[in-house]
Structures are given as structure tokens and as C-alpha cells.
Design goal:
The complex is a heterodimer.
Chain A (H helix, E strand, L loop, with lengths): L17 H27 L11 H15 L1 H33 L1 H16 L6 H8 L3 H12 L1 H12 L3 H9 L4 H38 L5 H10 L3 H29 L5 H19 L5
Helix pairs in contact in A: 2-11, 3-4, 3-6, 3-7, 3-9, 3-10, 5-6, 6-9, 7-9, 9-10, 9-11, 10-11
Chain B lengths: L1 H12 L6 E12 L3 E12 L3 E5 L6 H9 L6 E6 L2 E2 L7 E4 L11 H5 L1 H6 L4 H13 L15 H14 L4 E5 L7 H18 L2 E6 L2 H7 L2 E6 L4 E7 L14 H15 L2
Parallel strand pairs in B: 3-8, 3-9, 6-7, 7-8
Antiparallel strand pairs in B: 1-2, 1-4, 4-5, 9-10
The chains are: A mainly alpha, B alpha/beta.
Chain lengths: 293, 266
């Protein structure tokens, strides 16, 4: 069960004082600018070949050109985003669904596990050409590849979470005369929620990888296609600009998942837990007939 | 098969004293038909009495509690609760564990309401009762705190309120304050006595602390290990309500010595 991934990389729970925060951000920006400057000069004085490592200013110019003037990048971005998100949703639904079935039924778990392990140890990206041969050249094969690559973390994390229920809590539910369905929805599922979310965080970045790789192999649209076009033309500044856009997109998806985690697993986030506690106190005020602070 | 068996037990016990709420005859629990966790225990527990089960690890006290709760099935003998053979968990019987087993995604009051939810729909009367119970266990103003915001002792208080919310008249407590520090445990024990007096319940209290067992109970069931056996039932004659000073009296210490000698012989 140690296969479960802990996707918690964020430092959002740590909230330093405002002044210290500004100081930290300033230091980060200063360091970033220094690195960029060194890089810029190294390129300008040809200490590195600009064809290998284009100047930051060239990348920035390409980026501005791409985003503001040409505008076609938005279409490609939309394609890749759609493929990644659709792959993520499909892979996660399948992964969580299989894990729930396996978690509730021991014999199903036994029968399915060799196949799951086989699929996990196979480098699934190697399936990409086969999937494209099956599904053609549109978005479908990229979605399928994304789903295939990303389904494992939600699966194994959900299964781990469901099986990792406190035995005393389980007995407590049984002593109350709870039915299996009640134990599942009121105990097992919420108990597994934090680790399921960690699996989903890993899955979304895997789905993005799947979409891009699918586009590399065969496609006419998407960020992967754009990237290949620019590198084949040795337009390295634009290639790096595409990379920057992909980084921003990956980060946006990551932030989205962090937000979802904050929302769904509120009891692990102090600020939101306190807010919900207050909200519930207000909702109950009518019943208990006294005001809550 | 099971239905017939429980029928027979019901018939055979229904003519007995209606004041007996739990009755066992030669009750046996064996795991894997090899390990005998509880060997031929026989006892009767009166309505409204407080009974402690004391003994070292492996003496079968938790097994006995789980049998009464209907969480595990017996291997042989007879066991009836309120005149009916035990065939599974019942609403008449509530259980509390050494760990609070609170749901960390629910506020204190929502945790207390869990038994009501499991049984069906929750009304405003149930909600009012849950709030009252939290006040009874000394958690006024903490109704909307989450378990992670509460101390260990407070969490166990929530668990006690949840137990009372079941409305069960038979309360099974498995070392409920065993994981808490000495001071908190003593205070919670005193409050427990006050509360069970209030709700007029029959209590089975598992502990491995001899003084605690005697201080709380009307009767102490002394159990010995390998195989788990009910060695003796000791009556505790002290008046109620009890004060903590009772533990310094010579009569109290004589009883402690008696229980210790029963346990020491094994």
C-alpha cells in the first residue's frame, strides 16, 4: 500500500506574517531576475549557442507575439486543455470506480489485482501508437492515452483509503446497527477523501503528459503539435515560449486541484475548518436558541 | 437455524427474574476453534447496576463485551440481553471504545447525532437532545468544534455524549478513559458516575485498573487469562454517590487486596 502517492507539495497551509511574505516574494523575484540576466548575457556574448538556449528576451518576445498578436496559440491551448481534462476525468472515474468495487468486494479485488499490476508495470506510454491506430487522429486517442496513464494514482489511492478504515470506528458503526451502505458513505468514503484527492492531484499532471505525447505522435492541433513545428523549424525561442505556456497551464490545473482539496477535505485545512465551524454554529442558532460567537 | 436457537433461548429465559438484563450460562468464545478467548462464563447482571470487568490483557474482557454488543457471535453456551438471545447489534445496547472513534469531518454535535442518523431521519428534537448531551458531558460552547480542535479528554466526552444519544439502556464501555492521563481519567470517571445515575443505565465497564474497577462499580467481575475465565464476582458495598476520598479508606483497600489476590493466583 506504500504505492499510494502523496501529492501534497503545497505550502499553502503555512501563512507567514504579511511583511515577511512580501520580503520572501521580493527575494524570489530578485533571484529569478539575476538568473535571467546571467542567461541573457551568456547568450548575447555567445557563451552558449542561442540556437540551443535562446535569450530570455527572445523567448519573452516570442511569447508576447504568440499570445497577443498571432492568437492561434489559444486554439491549440484549448485543444490540449480539453484533451487533458477529459482524459483526467475519464481516467479518474474509471480508477475510482474500480477501486470502490475492489474495496467493497474482496474476491473482485483478488481477480483484478494481477491485471492492475500488469498495467502499472507496463510503460503505458508505449501503448500510445496502438491507441492511435485504434482511434485515429482526432482528440479521442489523446484523451484515451491521458486516461490510460492517469488512472492508476486515483485507483490505488482510493483503494488504500477505503481499506485503511479504523477498525474501532468500523465496530462503532456496526454497534449502532449501521448497514453496509451507511458505513460506506458515512465512514469509508469520507475517510478516504484526503488520499483520493492526493491521487487526483498526481493524475491531472499525468493526463496532461498523455495529451502532449499523443500530439507528438500524430496530430494536427494542440500544444504538442505547436512545439514540434517550432523545433523542426529551429525556432527555439518560440519552442521555449510554448513550454512556458504549458508550465503556466500545468500550474493552473495544480492550483485548481489544491482549491478542490481545500473545498472537499475541509477538515484538514485549518482556515476553512474554522470557517465551516462558524457557519454551522449560525445554521444551528435557531435550534439551540442562543447566539454563537 | 439461528432463529430457532434464539427462540429457544428466549423461551428458556423469559420466566426468569425480569430485573436481570444480561444473563450468560457457560458462555464460550473460541477463535479458529483453537484459541479459547472466553471459557464458560456464567453471570447475571441486574437492571441499573454498574459492573466492572477487571483483569490483565488476554483475559477475555473485551471479548465478553463484544459478545454482549452482538459484534461477534458466541461459540457455545447461552447469552441473553433483556430476555432475548443475542444475534447481532441492538438498539438497546450502546458501546464506547478506548479511542474516541470520532469522525474528523464532522463537528462535535454532528458526531453525537450519528446514532440518530444511522437509525433514520433526524428531527429538531434529536438535535436539541444532542446539544443537551454535550452540555451534560461538559462541552457547552464546543458543539461546533471539529475533533481535531479538541483535546483527547474532550474527544472522549463527545464519544460519551454520542453513546448516550443512542438511547440505549445498556452501556458497554471498553476502557473508555484508558488512553487519557491520570487526572483527566479520574475526573471523567466521577462525571461518568453522575451521568449514568442521571440516565438510569446498566453499565458494563472494562478496565485493567483494580482501584478504578472497584471505585465505580456495584460488582466487579474478576477475570483471569489463558484461557479467559471469569474467576469471581466481588460485591462492592459502598454507598452512592461516591467521593474520591473513598479510595483512601481501609475497607476500599481491603477490597483492592482481595481482587489482587484473586488475580495473583493465576
Amino acid at each position: 500500500m506504500s504505492l499510494a502517492t502523496d501529492g501534497n507539495l503545497s505550502m499553502t497551509d503555512v501563512a507567514p506574517a504579511r511583511g515577511r511574505l512580501i520580503g520572501q516574494v521580493a527575494r524570489h523575484i530578485a533571484l529569478f531576475l539575476a538568473v535571467m540576466l546571467v542567461w541573457e548575457f551568456a547568450s548575447t556574448y555567445e557563451l552558449v549557442d542561442p540556437l540551443i538556449l535562446p535569450r530570455p528576451s527572445a523567448i519573452a518576445t516570442a511569447l508576447v507575439n504568440m499570445v497577443l498578436y498571432q492568437g492561434t496559440v489559444w486554439f491549440h491551448l484549448g485543444v490540449t486543455l480539453w484533451e487533458a481534462v477529459a482524459g483526467f476525468v475519464i481516467g479518474s472515474v474509471i480508477g475510482i470506480g474500480l477501486a470502490v468495487a475492489a474495496g467493497l468486494n474482496e474476491s473482485f479485488r483478488r481477480y483484478i489485482s494481477p491485471y492492475i499490476i500488469a498495467l502499472q508495470v507496463t510503460p503505458r506510454i508505449a501503448l500510445a501508437p496502438i491507441v492511435i491506430a485504434w482511434l485515429g487522429f482526432g482528440m479521442m486517442p489523446k484523451i484515451a492515452i491521458g486516461a490510460l496513464i492517469c488512472f492508476f494514482p486515483p485507483f490505488i489511492n482510493t483503494l488504500t483509503g477505503l481499506l485503511n478504515v479504523d477498525e474501532d470506528a468500523n465496530e462503532m458503526f456496526r454497534s449502532l446497527g449501521a448497514k453496509k451502505r451507511q458505513i460506506f458513505f458515512s465512514l469509508m468514503l469520507p475517510n478516504a477523501m484526503p488520499i483520493i484527492m492526493a491521487g487526483l492531484k498526481t493524475a491531472i499532471s499525468l493526463a496532461l503528459i498523455g495529451a502532449i505525447v499523443g500530439e507528438f505522435i500524430s496530430a494536427s492541433e494542440g500544444m504538442g503539435v505547436l512545439m514540434q513545428r517550432y523545433t523542426f523549424a529551429l525556432n527555439m525561442a518560440s519552442s521555449f515560449a510554448v513550454l512556458v505556456i504549458l508550465t503556466v497551464m500545468g500550474y493552473a490545473l495544480f492550483v485548481l486541484m489544491e482549491w478542490a482539496d481545500n473545498w472537499l477535505v475541509y477538515w484538514r485545512h485549518d482556515t476553512r475548518m474554522t470557517a465551516i465551524s462558524r457557519k454551522k454554529a449560525r445554521a444551528w442558532a435557531g435550534i439551540i436558541g442562543r447566539r454563537q460567537a | 437455524m439461528n432463529a430457532i436457537a434464539s427462540h429457544l433461548v428466549a423461551a428458556s429465559t423469559s420466566h426468569i427474574d425480569p430485573d436481570i438484563v444480561i444473563s450468560a450460562r457457560d458462555l464460550v468464545k473460541a477463535f479458529n476453534s483453537q484459541v479459547v478467548a472466553l471459557d464458560r462464563a456464567s453471570f447475571d447482571i441486574k437492571r441499573g447496576s454498574f459492573v466492572s470487568l477487571v483483569g490483565p490483557s488476554g483475559c477475555g474482557k473485551s471479548t465478553l463485551l463484544r459478545l454482549v454488543a452482538g459484534l461477534i457471535g458466541k461459540s457455545a453456551g447461552e447469552l441473553s440481553v433483556l430476555g432475548h438471545g443475542v444475534s447481532g447489534p441492538s438498539h438497546e445496547v450502546g458501546m464506547m471504545f478506548q479511542r474516541p472513534t470520532l469522525l474528523e469531518w464532522r463537528t462535535a454535535v454532528e458526531n453525537v447525532l450519528l446514532p440518530t442518523e444511522v437509525q433514520g431521519t433526524t428531527t429538531d428534537a434529536d438535535r436539541k437532545r444532542a446539544i443537551e448531551l454535550l452540555q451534560l458531558v461538559g462541552l457547552k460552547d464546543f458543539e461546533f468544534s471539529f475533533p481535531r480542535q479538541l483535546s483527547g479528554g474532550m474527544q472522549q466526552r463527545v464519544a460519551l455524549a454520542r453513546l448516550l444519544q443512542t438511547g440505549a439502556n445498556i452501556l458497554l464501555l471498553d476502557e473508555p478513559f484508558g488512553a487519557l492521563d491520570e487526572f483527566t481519567r479520574e475526573r471523567l470517571n466521577l462525571e461518568l458516575l453522575r451521568i449514568v445515575d442521571d440516565v438510569d443505565a446498566t453499565v458494563l465497564f472494562v478496565t485493567h485498573n483494580i482501584s478504578e474497577a472497584i471505585f465505580l462499580a456495584d460488582q466487579v467481575m474478576v477475570m483471569t487469562p489463558r484461557p479467559g475465565r471469569l474467576a469471581k464476582i466481588v460485591d462492592v458495598p459502598f454507598e452512592r454517590p461516591r467521593e474520591i476520598g473513598l479510595m483512601q479508606t481501609p475497607e476500599f483497600n481491603r477490597l483492592v487486596g482481595e481482587v489482587r489476590s484473586i488475580l495473583g493466583g493465576h
